[in-house]
Specification:
The protein has two domains: 1-32; 34-87. The chain is 74% helix and 0% strand. The protein has helices spanning 6-30, 34-62, 71-80. The N and C termini lie far apart (50 Å).
Length: 87
């Protein structure tokens, strides 16, 4: 399998963005309350920050030599390298 070209990467990003807007739009249409919208925004923001942490922070500040290939890889790395705290 060849690498993705920049054109296909942009198309993939656009599809992710479209799918996200479609799902969020449906959720807000099915439950149009301020409280629901607020918590949907907080959930999306929190997952984005976690994604940033899982790749950028771990790779650049915790272990610059390790290269992650997905969230599963990041989770396994954190599980294997967790610090043992004395009880």
């Amino acid at each position: 399998m060849s690498d993705l070209t920049p054109r296909w990467i942009i198309i993939k990003a656009a599809l992710f963005l479209f799918t996200g807007f479609l799902a969020a739009g449906y959720l807000l249409w099915s439950n149009p309350t301020f409280q629901f919208a607020f918590f949907l925004i907080v959930a999306i923001w929190s997952f984005c920050r976690f994604y940033y942490f899982a790749f950028y922070v771990i790779q650049h500040y915790i272990d610059p030599t390790y290269r992650f290939d997905g969230l599963w890889s990041a989770g396994l790395y954190l599980w294997k390298h967790r610090r043992r705290t004395p009880r």
